[in-house]
């Protein structure tokens, strides 16, 4: 790379590479369009490569431009994170960490983690994002979040996975349902009921665990509704559209006209795991993992 290439050139290039439109990129960067064009031309001259294919109708990336966009996106993002962390350190704030999580992790694991972590590191900033498993994996690979809480048993090789909770399953029934913890004997007692379940796409691994509960009981469920929201499940059960099965930790925090029966005697468990990018150099991440 030539001596004349500066960080601003990289950011200018990435802006045009993302928008594929010089005017839009210039407006986003708060510089003039001719000025932006000159900076990109200077970068191309210094590198001795052509980054964009230009004509009157459109702007496109050359193969070299596409390669640089993919590589420089991560480089610039990492640099921005380093500079942001340095600023937080200067302000007396040790750093920040961004968490992704599936809904059930917010019922106990994450609140307990944050409370204990705050006692040790009171100035760390947290950003919380509820996301499905697939979204968390993608965000971790792109370094958009630092750590995730997922229901998966396999992740890409750049990520690390560690179980943190083996949760029992719990039945969710309308409050007036004749079954209760006192007369419940087997899941088979609900063979004639319609079930409301989390969508398979939300977490294929979790879905297969739930299906194995029915295999264990010796029948296939009749499913009336699929959803990705616990609140929707509870509302549907409350209004007698069916019954459901959830991780036991998910039952906390909902005040609805339903009742729960924990399936303690069934050995199948809903596993919640923490996942992170092995290449993530955020120093706060290691503190989180140590506490977990």
From TrEMBL:
Report keywords, A-Z: DNA-binding, Transcription, Transcription regulation
Task: Read off the InterPro entries from this record.
Answer: LysR_HTH_N, LysR_subst-bd, WH-like_DNA-bd_sf, WH_DNA-bd_sf
**Which positions carry the signal peptide feature in this UniProt record?**
none
Q: GO CC annotations? A: protein-DNA complex
Q: What region holds the HTH lysR-type domain?
A: 5-62
The molecular function GO annotations come to:
DNA binding; DNA-binding transcription factor activity
Q: Which SUPFAM superfamilies match?
A: Periplasmic binding protein-like II, Winged helix' DNA-binding domain
Task: Indicate yes or no for the key word Metal-binding.
Answer: no
Q: What is this protein called?
A: Transcriptional regulator, LysR family
Similarity comment text for this entry: Belongs to the LysR transcriptional regulatory family.
Q: Which organism is it from?
A: Microscilla marina ATCC 23134
Question: Does the record's keyword annotation contain ATP-binding?
Answer: no
């Amino acid at each position: 790379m030539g001596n004349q290439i500066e960080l601003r050139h990289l950011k200018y290039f990435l802006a045009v590479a993302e928008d594929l439109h010089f005017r839009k990129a210039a407006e986003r960067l708060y510089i003039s369009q001719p000025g932006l064009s000159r900076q990109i031309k200077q970068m191309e001259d210094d590198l001795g490569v052509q980054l964009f294919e230009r004509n009157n109708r459109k702007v496109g990336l050359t193969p070299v431009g596409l390669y640089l966009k993919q590589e420089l996106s991560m480089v610039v993002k990492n640099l921005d994170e380093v500079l942001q962390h340095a600023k937080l350190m200067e302000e007396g704030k040790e750093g920040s960490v961004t968490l992704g999580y599936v809904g059930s992790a917010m019922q106990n694991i994450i609140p307990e983690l944050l409370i204990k972590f705050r006692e040790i590191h009171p100035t760390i900033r947290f950003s919380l994002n509820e996301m499905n498993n697939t979204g968390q994996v993608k965000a971790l690979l792109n370094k958009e979040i630092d750590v995730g809480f997922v229901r998966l048993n396999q992740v890409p090789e750049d990520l690390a996975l560690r179980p943190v909770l083996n949760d029992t399953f719990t039945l969710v029934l309308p409050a007036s349902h004749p079954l209760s913890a006192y007369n419940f004997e087997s899941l088979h007692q609900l063979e004639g009921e319609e079930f409301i379940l989390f969508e398979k796409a939300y977490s294929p691994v979790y879905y297969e665990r739930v299906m194995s509960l029915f295999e264990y009981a010796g029948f296939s469920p009749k499913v009336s509704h699929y959803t990705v929201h616990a609140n929707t499940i509870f509302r549907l059960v409350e209004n007698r559209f069916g019954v459901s099965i959830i991780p036991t930790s998910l039952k906390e925090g909902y005040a609805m006209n339903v009742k729960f029966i924990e399936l303690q005697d069934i050995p199948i468990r809903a596993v919640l795991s923490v996942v992170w990018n092995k290449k993530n150099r955020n120093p706060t991440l290691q503190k989180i993992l140590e506490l977990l």
